[in-house]
Please model this.
Amino acid sequence: MSNFEFVFSLFGLLLGLALAQLLGGFGRALQSRHRIHVGWLTPMLGLIVALDVTSFWTFGWEVRNALTPAFFVLICCFAITGLYYLVARLAFPDEPTEWPDYDVYFFRHKNLVLGGVLACNLLAYAGQYALGYNALTQHMMVIVASVFFPLVILSILARGKLWSTVSLGLLLAQYPILSFYSMTIHAG
Model:
C-alpha cells in the first residue's frame, strides 16, 4: 500500500460520507416536496458542495507523491475533510418538517456552508503549498482560483432570492465550464 493509498483511505471515507449526507438531503427534499417549499436555493447549494467535495479528490491526486502518513499531514487532511463533512451536513435540513420553506433554511445557513467551502479550498491550497506543491504555478489553477474564490465570496454576500440564485448559478456553472476547458487544453 502506498503512502497515498494509506492516507486517502481514511479521507476518501470521510469525503464519501459527505457525499452521502448530500444525497440524503436531496432525497429528503424530494420526498417532502409536496408538503414543503423546496425551491432552488438549497438544492443549488447542495450541488455546489457535492461538486466541490468531488473536486477535492483532484487536490489529493496532485500531491499524491508528497503525502506521508505523518501525524501533521493526517491532522491537516482531517481538518479539510472533516470540515467538508460538516458543511455537507449543514447544506440540507435534517428534518424537513421543521423547515417548511427551504429558502428560509438556505438564508439561515448559506454563510456557514459557503464559508466552509471557502475555508476547505483555502486549506487545500495551503496544504499543497506546505507539501511543496504550488498549484498556482499552473495556468489552469490560476484560472480556477481567480474564478472560484470571487464567485464564492459573491454568493456569500448575495442578498435576496434573485441575487442568490444568480450567484449560485454562476458558481455552479464554473465547475463544468472550467472542467471542460481544462480537458481541452490538456488534450491539445
Notes: The chain is about 80% helix and 0% strand. Residues 3-135 form one domain.
